[in-house]
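Sanity check

After download, print the first record. It should look like this:
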Amino acid sequence: MTRGIQQLNKYKKQSLILVIFTALTLLLSTTVTAAEQEETLTVVSLGDSITFGWNLEQPQTPPVQSENAFPFLIGNGNTEVLNVSYPGWTSTQLLEAIKTEESQQKLQQAETVTLSIGANDLLQAIELSKIIENQQPVDPEALQQKVAAATAQVYNNITEIITLIKGQTDAPILLYSLYNPFGMNDPIYGSIHMLGEMITNSVNSKVYSTIAAQQGVQYLDAYSAFNGKQQDYIIPGDIHPTISGQQALALLATNRLNELNPIMINPILSTEEETAEPVSITLEKIEHTIEIKWLSGEKTASDFVNEGNLVENNSFTVTENGVYTIYVKTALGESISTIEISNITPKVEDPIEDEEPPVDVEQPEEEEPPSDTNEDEDQAPTEQPEKETQDEAPKVEKPKQTMVKSGHALPDTATSMYNILLTGLCFIGIGGGVLFNQRLRKSRVKQ
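Expected structure tokens:
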């Protein structure tokens, strides 16, 4: 017996541990599932120090791509960036880097490719550092020849780079133009503002916009985004973008990607016929979804910052007619859409159910007639003996027959007492039998 109890307790402990383990497993799996529901945008970033986010953090050694660089800021910042960029790279160096197996594997995962390259080709060609150091007028003809040679090299390299990209992915390619880092009123580089204007306008026209049209890639006008805003977008005494400048570059990509793949909210009703049942609203799959919410009434996107009913499995249910607003947030942005439900009809049963309670209250009152009959029945026996005595009054024999002369019949009180006594004896007998049986079992156990 003792061993059996110990085994039972051991089994209970093992079962408890198993239940706790199962509960923790379900909790963790639920957490992982919720996290996986937020879809990220995979961006492969190709370029030089601009793409790398150079000088955004100090010190930046060893060189690691800054998370404030524009590829990380595209959309809502919910991106996975695969980097193929490095400070100082020219278009020739990027072309060699993109031919490696590692870069090709990254491109195969791409959902978007950003390409910003060529600035170093031109800066090295015109020997910008010497121009700034000497502060002497530049020979226009010699400068144009250098720019022309560098322009041709950049054109050929970028064309080949795009061809290699297309060989690995069908993702959209976003080609950035050059911006002029020298502001007109810049205290350091203001004197070479016009030189920057001449070079950037020429190269953007002959290389970047032309290649974009020829290759069918997306042209992003970084020049216009930075023009007149160099004081805010360029690090002082530098040619690289500030965080604000990086955000401006990211916004160009976000806007273009939203144009290519706008957030389409297409609600589908479970039925468009009149129905007394709730109506389910299902949404078609939306790429890179972070969250979907809904609210009753016409709402704006700001109303969903701290409110809204979360939509699970791209579907939700409503029970009343009216206007509903659907909010969708993706890795690229957010959007809202309204839908009006007008085919839900009130249930016919509802007013009938409201009238039933008074009927239920009246039913107990109808039970009063049985109580009256009972009273009549109680009165009936009292009246019958009176009738019998009246009828039997002239008969002398019947009263004599009611007298107990045989000695076998008992009065009513004696009969009930006898029944009680007999019942008690039965219980005593049963109890004695049970007690005897228990003692007999105990004696066998001891033996």
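If your output differs, re-run the checksum step. Summary of this record's structure: The longest strand covers residues 322-330.
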